[in-house]
């Protein structure tokens, strides 16, 4: 019913507008085209100036209203550089924006048709054109210079002491693999993927490096201050690991692994202190991946080295989950529980 | 000076001109079918493109209103949606599959069917023969085929909306594997095949059109119309056609390989895929290959959309400020530079795909280089307005609006083209805001400017001015209301194509903003419907054009009769003696191109 009502009002409003428009056209024909044009010219010229002033105020208002909703402090080393680059670009473009928009609408207002003015025949001026070719070129060279300098820093080789984790995207969730104490991720072959056999990533068990790899879903743990290199891939379609607080992003492409690295600066706990109890590092999928794209959420916990070690120690290598016959804790069910933890811990601790 | 101004009438003579192929008189009987349906008259084909484009624009625009409803009011249900869309909007709430189908169709329809076919299809067809002084296109028959291939493409695309599994829903870029693997989603089934077939037909249409535009501009200019005397619209249409002819075939190849992967078991784009636990046998393909092929068209496509708008805006600003366009050669040069650079920047859409960072650096450089010719154009437009005598026709307003939007959207391109910033902003709402302003809305403004300016030539009547002014101001204000604050969502990192953000701690702070944007988009859509009404009403009932040259313009199309027949000029085609921009020269208000250069005329 309300929909019908809204439509009725719209139609009515339109009819009234149309009648007015029609009438004004008749009036303009009667008063002569020239006069009518001058009349509407004045109105539009004024509106141009009004739009400029209200618009610039709107830009200010919008910023006041929304600046609190964006961009907390970057939580990674690369994030700082990206924010710096962002602010440099913002400053430069803002100046150009205000300058050109003011000129545009001011000229439109100032030089609206008037009988007293003859337009100035001004077809070209090489000096002027040279100026506004060279100045943007210089400004852009600066931006390109900064940009590429940071870009190489961010995309360059990860430091030697970086920890490695593997991130795998699938419709619609995230899977993670830690390399275990050997620091090396074992080989995978996608045709070995078998959820029923507890091998969700298709790890090749004949590869010894796989035996201590740890598997987790949805929540990833990282160490504060320690560079992390992510090896990123996907199972089904292209996804994207979007880490908004770290300002990092990399596609997850099936069949073509990608990498990115960064150093988290703050633990989750520190961020909670700054931004409230609800704070959580989130992983968002940034590449359209199907019906659940908008809900493909993962989380990251950044913690101290001890907390991280404790976390890993609580996990069982996927090799043992998939091959229970190789699992010492199951082979010797009579062994006391304390021993099991010790054995596991010795396997896991670097 | 008014005698000088009316000298263009000298072209109207009774002579028949032997070497002109055919002349303005009709030798053959025109039936309804040959005049309105399978017409070979470029002006009729232009109208066909325009009206088909308008139908598509309503559909594509309506889709955006529908998904904006979901974005603005994610918790609310709209029973009317279920009435129209049945199972896709059960309980009045749009299903995610349907949301993505709407987004995909909105993008495809507006980028290709409206802003490519509807824009350059309309104005290249209408203006090229009229402004260079030709009776018709180089091949009127291919020109007709161009429209009918477009029509076929439209039928296939429309058809895909009604099949059981729904239309393609992988985004307008249709990246595989999502678009290649039917198990990955409903929209990857028959809908994707139809999308690809429709695009293939569309590409054929645009190649036929493009080849025609190029050969017409190069070969069929009237006597005296050297390349550097052509109006800037012609240069823009010419470069647009070149871009299309060189880049669309690459998309065609990409689409055909994707069809192979989907239906013939090849593995061009597929490798190592486990979808919903099902292991596919494809190995050795590269999903990124498609992105290279797609964006090799996809980026020039942006300029295929934008250049015609730039050309028309240059022309309209000059005519209505009664001043020559400032820096004609620089304008041509910058169009040329943009056309060249358009081919060299495609990988800036792929900075975060794992592209070699070293390669990425070159694409940063080349991308930001585009800002230089763009800056030249903006400053030249500003200088054209400076000390002019501006008449605010609806066309002028839209042209000024275009410049404003082009500045706003162009500047945000400097953020995205810089790979360092792009890492953060890639695939966020910032990108959506950026390309909607600079490519979507700006090109629409160019198109509207063109429609208002050349409507008298197309239909012999005027559009209603008051409705035109309302149309402009509401659209202009709403365009900024919708897309300006959207940048902030992008800076906050909100990813594109998220239909519901409540589950996210980082992205759920924009509820009110999303509502405001939705309301603005509904208002702006209603105003476009008003424009459509104005358009069709004015075709039949608008104020009649009574003078041959209503805007006092210099270009050749205004030397034709008010309602030109097939062949455009009665009698001989006029000869051209000067460039198109002698406005206000030596105190003369305007000097049409057909007026010979006087002895005492100053040089410029």
Topology overview:
The complex is a heterodimer of chains A (350) and B (604).
Chain A: H1 2-31, H2 33-66, H3 77-110, H4 126-155, E1 163-170, E2 173-178, E3 214-217, E4 219-223, E5 228-234, E6 239-243, E7 248-252, E8 258-262, H5 268-275, E9 281-285, E10 297-303, H6 305-313, H7 318-322, H8 328-331, H9 337-348
Parallel strand pairs in A: 1-5, 4-10
Antiparallel strand pairs in A: 1-2, 2-3, 5-8, 6-7, 6-9, 9-10
Helix pairs in contact in A: 1-2, 2-3, 3-4
Chain B: H1 2-5, H2 32-37, H3 42-72, H4 79-85, H5 96-132, H6 140-160, H7 190-219, H8 232-263, E1 274-275, E2 278-279, H9 287-321, H10 328-342, H11 357-369, H12 371-385, H13 394-416, H14 419-425, H15 429-459, H16 465-483, H17 486-491, H18 511-541, E3 583-585, E4 588-590
Antiparallel strand pairs in B: 1-2, 3-4
Helix pairs in contact in B: 3-5, 3-6, 3-18, 5-6, 5-7, 5-8, 5-9, 5-15, 6-7, 7-8, 8-9, 8-10, 9-10, 9-13, 9-15, 10-12, 12-13, 13-15, 13-16, 15-16, 16-18
Radius of gyration of chain B: 25 Å
The overall pLDDT average of chain A reads 90
Biggest β-sheet: strands ordered side by side in the sheet of chain B: 1-2
Number of helices of chain B: 18
| Content-based structural category of chain B | mainly alpha
Structural class, judged by helices and strands of chain A? alpha+beta
In angstroms, what separates the terminal alpha carbons of chain B? Answer: 19 Å
Largest sheet of chain A: 5 strands, mixed
